[in-house]
Amino acid sequence: MYEPFEAAAKLETHKQVTDERWIALERRLDQIETALERLERRLWLAVYGVVAFVLTRGVLTLMEMSQAV
């Protein structure tokens, strides 16, 4: 006698749970995306640091060579 109402209630509950899970998933994906952006900035900073070091060493080597001549 009450089965159609119970099924509707179960479907509504399932929809609410699914919506909450979706919201949590989106929030977690945003956190992961933010972490990846921070990691990318750190990697570029490391790359620029290495390039600066190599260029500095090259300039110092050229200066030493020009003083020796």
Written description of the protein model:
By secondary structure, this protein is an all-alpha fold. It has 1 helix and no strands. It has one helix at 3-68. The longest helix has 66 residues, at 3-68. The radius of gyration is 30 Å and the shape is rod-shaped.
Describe the structure in brief.
The protein has 69 residues and is an all-alpha fold. It is built from one helix and no strands.
List its traits.
single chain; 69 residues; mainly alpha; 96% helix; 0% strand; rod-shaped
- Number of extended strands: 0
Helix-strand category: mainly alpha
What is the percent of helical residues? over 70%
Percent of residues in β-strands? under 5%
Most strands sheet: none
Averaged pLDDT: 93
List the helices and strands and how they pair.
Elements: H1 3-68
